[in-house]
Amino acid sequence: MALLVGSLAPDFTLPGWYAREEQDFTLSQERGRPVVLSFYPGDERLVCTRQLCSYSDNIADLHLFDAVVWGIAPQDVESHRAFAEGRRLKMPLLADVDKAVARAYGVLGAFGLRRSVFVVDPEGLVAWRWVGTMNVTFPDVGEVREALAAV
To answer: Is it the case that residue 110 has pLDDT exceeding 90?
Structure first.
């Protein structure tokens, strides 16, 4: 079942890659600022690459709202490292290898992870959500920026 706007965002800790090192990322440690969670099916896939490069290239627009932006996919940290370094991504990529976080957010479909974006407000509530149906589209930076502005 999909997580609805106004719901408490499930807390999690996942390993990830950022700033040339492996780190753990915990959602609840970001309380006090908005967090953008971008679930994507896989590293180096065409639409995923376009989406994450778009967010990374425009990260300053999202940081205007003091937002944290995380990409989350089922590949391991090594895959994320290669993807992030190869594409020079300016955001952490988190490894949800067992898909437990995707399941908790209701974005694990019959054919795998559904491309989805959540904005979690500073109090830890889901303020905005976008869940794709065909995995070929994604909300652009302007849509995510508007969602952050409303928080």
So the answer is: no
